[in-house]
Amino acid sequence: MGFRSTRVHALAIVSCAAAALTACGGSDDPRPLSCTDISTVTLGLTGLKVAQSAEVAASGAQPAHCIVTGTVNDRTGIDGKLYAIGFELRLPQPADWKGKFFFQGGGGTDGVIAPATGSLINTTSTTALAQGYAVVATDGGHATGQADVSFGLDPQARLDYGYNAVGTLTPLAKAIVERRYASAPTRSYFMGCSNGGRQAMVAAARFGDQFDGLIAGDPGFNLPKAALAEIWDTQQFMSAATAGQLPKDAFPQSAMTLVSQHILAKCDALDGASDGIVNDRVACQAAFDLAADVPSCSGSVTTGCLSPAQKSALQKIVDGVKNAAGQSLYASWPWDPGMAGANWRFWKLDAGFAPLPFNTLIGAGAMGYVFTTPPDAPDLTDGGLGYQLGFSFETGAPKIFATAVPFNESAMGFMTPPNPTNLATLKQHGAKLIVYHGSADPVFSANDTIAWYDALTAADANASGYARLFLVPGMNHCSGGPATDRFNMLTALEDWVEQGHAPDSVVAGINPADPDVAAAGWPASRSRPLCAYPKQARLKAGATDLESAASFQCQ
Question: What is the pTM of this model?
Answer without folding.
Answer: 0.94
